[in-house]
């Protein structure tokens, strides 16, 4: 793990102490429909991610599960987020980083300005880039997740075409569970951790653990959140849970309970997902811990990175019951 740190971003909360997530700006879709500007093609698209970011992590898991690693290239930003935003580093300086081989950018911001010269919002990951039109297709993680699930089915191997992380018969239930998990857990850890008002913090951290309790109950007699199969709902929650004990519990003051000690059903499920083919390889705990503890100096001014990686997700071995994927 690199020990070089720079000037970090100060804070994210508004004047009232609330953290409000930015709405994504690029919302196009990849589709084989003749009217689509963005047609599925091997090698045409590039995914820019951070290994630390839970939102970007979703897209890496989908890319792996859907057999898209040879179809869509990736670049990985440095684990440290400074005042200049996400940057691209040599892997010698930041193990795990992958430079921008498409646009030769030094900072992620350069991509945004290539796509929109007058862009004036935050420069976030993930970014799905179109090499042909030299622009950003989409920078909303939940939509990129669905693009990867269905947008390339016409050009990938049949075994991957059949995999469906958002099956039609489960969509209503998936959408419903996604909504409160996003508000109270995915974004709830940030609303708790970035709060600068005591009442605001207590309000969000209470909702967070009420919803974790709700998830624990759901998983007490099910192996996955919806139906008996892995869906995007599991992926969206899992990238938060894998960061919970090593980061959010201490760094974001989400410390009423621990996944390892207080949520046995969530822990079993977290191990199950981690051990599924293609998931483990997307996890880089050095990037995750280093990013949070060194980039948020308003929360952790010493930039000391804790030793623990959270619960052991490799042991014991947890195997899914039956075929865990929906195959259309």
Automatic annotation (TrEMBL):
Entry binding sites for glutathione: 86, 122-125, 140-141
Top-rank lineage group of the source organism: Eukaryota
EC number: 1.8.5.7
Ranges where the record places region Disordered: 308-328
Domain GST C-terminal: 167-292
EC category: oxidoreductase
Entry GO CC: cytoplasm
UniProtKB keywords: Oxidoreductase
InterPro entries listed in its UniProt record: Glutathione-S-Trfase_C-like, Glutathione-S-Trfase_C_sf, Glutathione_S-Trfase, Glutathione_S-Trfase_N, GST_Omega-like_C, GST_Omega/GSH, Thioredoxin-like_sf
Active-site residue numbers: 53, 190
Entry GO MF terms: glutathione transferase activity; oxidoreductase activity
Site (Lowers pKa of active site Cys): 248, 292
Protein name: S-glutathionyl-(Chloro)hydroquinone reductase
């Amino acid at each position: 793990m690199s020990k070089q740190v720079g000037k970090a971003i100060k804070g994210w909360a508004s004047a009232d102490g609330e953290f409000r997530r930015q709405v994504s700006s690029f919302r196009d879709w990849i589709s084989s429909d003749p009217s689509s500007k963005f047609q599925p093609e091997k090698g045409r698209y590039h995914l820019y991610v951070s290994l630390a970011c839970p939102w970007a992590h979703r897209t890496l898991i989908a890319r792996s599960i859907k057999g898209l690693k040879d179809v869509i290239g990736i670049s990985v930003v440095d684990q440290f987020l400074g005042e200049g935003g996400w940057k691209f580093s040599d892997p010698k300086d930041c193990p795990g980083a992958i430079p921008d081989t498409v646009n030769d950018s030094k900072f992620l911001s350069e991509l945004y300005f290539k796509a929109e010269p007058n862009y004036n919002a935050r420069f976030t990951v993930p970014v799905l880039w179109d090499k042909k039109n030299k622009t950003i297709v989409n920078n909303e993680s939940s939509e990129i997740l669905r693009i990867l699930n269905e947008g390339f089915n016409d050009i990938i191997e049949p075994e991957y075409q059949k995999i469906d992380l958002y099956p039609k018969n489960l969509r209503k239930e998936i959408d419903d569970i996604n909504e409160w998990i996003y508000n109270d857990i995915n974004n709830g850890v940030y609303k708790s951790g970035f709060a600068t008002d005591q009442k605001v913090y207590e309000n969000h951290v209470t909702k967070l653990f009420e919803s974790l309790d709700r998830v624990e109950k759901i998983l007490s007699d099910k192996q996955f959140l919806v139906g008996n199969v892995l869906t995007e709902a599991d992926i969206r929650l899992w990238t938060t849970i894998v960061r919970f004990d090593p980061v959010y519990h201490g760094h974001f003051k989400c410390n009423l309970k621990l996944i390892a000690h207080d949520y046995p059903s969530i822990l079993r499920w977290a191990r199950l997902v981690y051990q599924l083919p293609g998931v483990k390889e997307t996890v880089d705990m050095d990037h995750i811990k280093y990013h949070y503890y060194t980039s948020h100096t308003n929360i952790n001014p010493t930039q000391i990175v804790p030793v623990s990686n959270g619960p052991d997700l490799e042991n014991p071995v947890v195997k899914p019951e039956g075929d865990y994927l929906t195959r259309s």
